């Protein structure tokens, strides 16, 4: 093993091509796997102050500092088979909703900016939006005055209001969510009395329709 | 079939220097690995919050931020701008391993190392010799591939599969399917190839290996003139190729390769105290002429000392 190793240009180029090819192949396989595995389930919500999902996955290092900062054990890091990408923080409001701490300790704990640690107020949080999905199961739609979602909502009388309506000629009061006030904390979903919650928090892009263009190309 | 607790490679040293001196670095390193996991586990499991977070990023005593520089590098490749806390944390970790030795992470901190060492131990004890030869540079290819994948997907790609983080998270915050991956690594090391994961495939180790090329703390064969060619160090070393230039070369006795884990197994296993844990500027110790060879029978003639 005396002296530096001598290699020919042909051998060097061959080696570079081989190693580069292997790296590209492995990189593309991992790319395929990652894009397959990083679709978050709509039931998994991110902590308050989270960047939009795509940016979030480029920033979150999965350290769990937000999870450990949460005083209510709302958050957990996803394991394989959970709704969110493995290792990332999420919560399932039907189990434990976000209690909307005024000082937002979870977001303040984030070292990478995946959660906005400068978030001024928990009311600016945007974890999702409550949507009354069960128009056939919601007790208020059946004419009862359940209104539990309205009563438990921490942004009382602003995020959910009760509006008079009429169904089949019967006067009813209906819970109506105001998306500009709702933070998606999930307290309503947690307390909904139906077996499967009639009101659910969904990520905003799923929960709200939106402006765009219809198929004829006209703005709607 | 499973007899003595320690590997055959340590036997000569145990005979010459006793059990404790032959396991000194091994004991220190296991203590360090257990302590590193324990401080992270104390919070969630016992409510004693010395450290929050996990090895990806943590907060020590509420003042000191630490961040895994490799994960941060992927985040950067994925197009996320740098956040100050994470940047400071990653800088501190890089500085730490520039002092302690790059892959000291692997041998002194990483919990997967305990798994792969156990697999290796079982392999030796049961006489499993099947060894599908892997190229040591595979890990560098995987390292490049993870950065490419991070760039293409805009996600911290390796964290979707990284068994190292899976195991840490599993220990810190609870058990999940991630343990399957850890088991896979164990079986890989046991049945498929010798030291397959840590010495051939793991891109985390490859990353710290790059840091280790410039690190201060290094093992050196400072008394290489005393070497009896018993090959105990080569047999015990997870990266045996790093030893030869320092032990048998004519230049510096320092093991300079970034692949070296600073694990001290060579120091433990050497019956004649050739190796020292020292710094990268160490030289050959004078007066270390071919020494007393207690209870050691060299297989070949001793290597030529500097006198030749």
Automatic annotation (TrEMBL), chain A:
InterPro entries linked to this entry: 4Fe4S_Fe-S-bd, 4Fe4S_Fe_S_CS, MauM_NapG, PSI_iron-sulfur_center, TAT_signal
Which Gene Ontology MF annotations are present? Answer: 4 iron, 4 sulfur cluster binding; metal ion binding
- CDD domains associated with the record: DMSOR_beta_like
| Pfam families tied to this protein | Fer4_7 (PF12838)
Instruction: For this UniProt record, give its keywords in alphabetical order, as a comma-separated list.
Output: 4Fe-4S, Electron transport, Iron, Iron-sulfur, Metal-binding, Repeat, Transport
Coiled-coil residue windows: none
Q: Show where the 4Fe-4S ferredoxin-type domain sits.
A: 50-80, 87-120, 173-204
State the name under which the record lists this protein: Ferredoxin-type protein NapG
TrEMBL record, chain B:
Q: Which UniProt keywords apply?
A: 4Fe-4S, Electron transport, Iron, Iron-sulfur, Membrane, Metal-binding, Repeat, Transmembrane, Transmembrane helix, Transport
SUPFAM superfamilies of this UniProt entry?
A: 4Fe-4S ferredoxins
The membrane spanning regions, by residue number, are: 34-51, 71-99, 140-158, 170-192
Domain 4Fe-4S ferredoxin-type: residue ranges: 218-248, 251-280
Could you tell me which Pfam families the record lists for this protein?
Answer: Fer4_5, Fer4_7
One cellular-component annotation, GO: plasma membrane
Write down the NCBIfam families for this protein, in alphabetical order: napH, PRK09477.1
Q: What is this protein called?
A: Ferredoxin-type protein NapH
Write down the species.
Paracoccus chinensis
């Amino acid at each position: 093993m005396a002296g530096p190793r001598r290699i020919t240009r042909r051998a060097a180029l061959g080696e570079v091509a081989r190693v580069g090819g292997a790296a590209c192949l492995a990189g593309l396989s991992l790319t395929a796997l990652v894009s397959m595995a990083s679709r978050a389930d709509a039931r998994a919500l991110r902590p308050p102050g989270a960047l939009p999902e795509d940016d979030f996955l480029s920033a979150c290092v999965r350290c769990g500092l937000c999870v450990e900062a949460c005083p209510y054990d709302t958050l957990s890091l996803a394991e394989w088979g959970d709704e969110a990408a493995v290792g990332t923080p999420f919560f399932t409001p039907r189990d434990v909703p976000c209690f909307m701490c005024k000082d937002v300790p979870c977001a303040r704990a984030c070292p990478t900016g995946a959660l906005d640690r400068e978030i001024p107020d928990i009311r600016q949080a945007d974890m999702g939006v409550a949507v009354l999905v069960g128009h056939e199961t919601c007790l208020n739609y059946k004419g009862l005055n359940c209104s539990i979602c309205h009563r438990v909502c921490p942004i009382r009388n602003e995020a959910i209001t009760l509006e008079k309506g009429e169904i089949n000629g019967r006067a009813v009061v209906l819970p109506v969510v105001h998306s500009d006030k709702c933070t998606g904390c999930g307290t309503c979903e947690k307390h909904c009395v139906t077996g499967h919650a009639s009101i659910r928090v969904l990520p905003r892009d799923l929960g709200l329709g939106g402006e765009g263009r219809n198929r004829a190309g006209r703005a709607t | 079939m499973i007899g003595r607790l320690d590997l055959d490679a340590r036997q000569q040293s145990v005979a010459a220097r006793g059990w404790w001196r032959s396991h000194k670095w091994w004991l220190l390193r296991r203590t360090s690995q257990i302590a590193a996991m324990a401080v992270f586990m104390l919070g969630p499991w016992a409510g004693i919050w010395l450290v929050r977070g996990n090895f990806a990023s943590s907060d020590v005593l509420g003042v000191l931020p630490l961040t895994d520089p490799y994960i941060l590098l992927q985040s950067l490749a994925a197009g996320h701008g740098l956040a100050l806390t994470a940047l400071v944390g990653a800088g501190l970790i890089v500085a730490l391993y520039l002092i302690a030795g790059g892959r000291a992470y692997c041998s002194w901190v990483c919990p997967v190392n305990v798994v792969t060492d156990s697999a290796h131990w079982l392999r030796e004890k049961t006489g499993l010799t099947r060894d599908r030869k892997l190229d040591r540079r595979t890990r560098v290819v995987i390292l490049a591939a993870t950065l490419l994948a991070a760039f293409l997907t805009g996600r911290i790609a390796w964290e979707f599969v990284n068994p190292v983080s899976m195991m840490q998270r599993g220990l810190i915050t609870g058990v999940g399917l991630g343990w399957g991956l850890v088991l896979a690594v164990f079986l890989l090391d046991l049945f498929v190839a010798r030291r397959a994961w840590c010495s051939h495939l793991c891109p985390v180790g490859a990353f710290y290996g790059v840091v280790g090329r410039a690190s201060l703390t290094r093992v050196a064969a400072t008394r290489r003139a005393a070497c009896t060619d018993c090959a105990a160090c080569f047999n015990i070393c997870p990266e045996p190729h790093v030893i030869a230039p320092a032990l048998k070369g004519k230049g510096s006795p320092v093991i300079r390769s970034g692949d070296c884990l600073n694990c001290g197994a060579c120091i433990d296993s050497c019956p004649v105290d050739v190796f020292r844990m020292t710094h990268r500027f160490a030289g050959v110790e004078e007066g270390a002429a071919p020494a007393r060879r207690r209870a050691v029978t060299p297989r070949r003639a001793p290597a030529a000392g500097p006198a030749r």
